[in-house]
Design a protein that fits this description.
The protein is an alpha/beta fold. 45% of the residues lie in helices and 24% in strands. The strands form four sheets. Strands 7, 8, 9, 12, 13 and 14 form a six-stranded mixed beta sheet that branches. A five-stranded mixed beta sheet has the order 4-3-5-15-6. The longest helix is centred in the N-terminal third of the chain and has 29 residues.
């Protein structure tokens, strides 16, 4: 005996006809009628005396109505308890983020989520390589750009950020402000090397790939930011890796017309029939921070003032 069938029957008994019951339940009259017929067939008894306008309860129907009210109330209470139980998460939530993104962006929203669920333990790993969620027991990952293995994942957009070309005031004072891509391709530049691949990542600017001289190569975005701040050269950095330096003036944004298209950050988890409440609620919580974080890391493309 399904709760839906019982609910339909109880509402018909309470309302006195199928039309009024359908209006309360927000479904069609035929749907209500079919639910009651299926319930009668399942139980093997007649529950209602039907006329063209009204219905009345049989003796069995009256007994089921009285007990059905109690059963439906118990079901409602059980449902509320289950929902509240999901809100009190426990166990371990395993998260994996790219290193600099994790340290600069993800710590704040993750700690706020965990604070709401004191019985939940959270393990956070920082890893710039591509992680196999199923093999490594990871619940949720954050990734940037294109996802090559998204067919086995449920993916949701978290926020979008802008990467910026920047350099220190001392570097620009000594070498001059570059005015176009030609100047950029002949300036000292600081590049990022993907550790797992051993290759220097090219700059994909709005105008396409840019062949800049890699005077310095680092495997860490924080190191690139510090090198640029020290006057080593021009860097292309995600805004979340150098926001403090930009806001303080220790780094200066240059050539906004060449900045790459904004890059999405994705949250991904394994595609499975049953999504654990800890994963579902974590994703929902992160979406609540998306607008605030996105506005923080989208830099204006408005032309910057250049020295004469």
């Amino acid at each position: 005996m399904t709760p839906a069938y019982l609910h339909a029957f109880v509402q018909v008994a309470r309302s006195g006809n199928f039309t009024a019951a359908s209006e309360v339940l927000g479904v069609s009259v035929s749907s209500v009628s079919k639910s009651v017929i299926r319930l009668e067939k399942e139980l093997g008894i007649k529950l209602l005396h039907r006329t063209t306008r009204n219905v009345s309860l049989t003796g069995d129907g009256q007994r089921l109505y009285e007990k059905g009210l109690v059963l439906l109330e118990q079901f409602r209470q059980l449902r509320e308890e289950m929902i509240q139980g999901q809100a009190q998460l426990n166990g371990v939530l395993r998260l994996n983020f790219p290193a600099t993104l994790g340290r600069n962006v993800m710590i704040e929203p993750v700690t706020k989520f965990v604070a709401q669920h004191p019985q939940l333990k959270t393990e956070v790993r920082f890893d710039d390589r591509l992680v196999d969620l199923a093999e490594e027991g990871v619940d949720v990952v954050a990734r940037t750009g294109r996802l090559s293995d998204s067919t086995s994942l449920i993916v949701t957009r978290f926020f979008t950020y802008q990467s910026v070309l920047c350099a220190s005031p001392s570097f620009l004072s000594q070498h001059g402000m570059p005015r176009d891509q030609f100047d950029l391709e002949h300036a000292a530049c600081i590049h990022f090397q993907v550790r797992s691949r051993g290759k220097v990542r090219p700059w994909h600017l709005r105008t396409g790939s840019c062949l800049t001289p890699a005077r310095y190569v680092f495997e860490d975005l924080t190191a690139i930011c510090k090198a640029a701040e020290a006057g080593a050269g021009i860097a292309l950095l995600p805004s979340w890796s150098c926001l403090e330096e930009l806001n303080s003036g220790r780094l200066v944004e240059i050539l906004p017309q060449l900045w790459p298209e904004p890059t999405p950050v994705w949250l991904a988890y394994h595609d499975r029939r049953y999504i654990a409440p800890k994963i579902r609620l974590f994703i929902e919580s992160m979406k609540g921070f998306a607008e605030e974080i996105g506005s923080r890391y989208m830099r204006s493309r408005a032309d910057l003032s250049l020295p004469s």
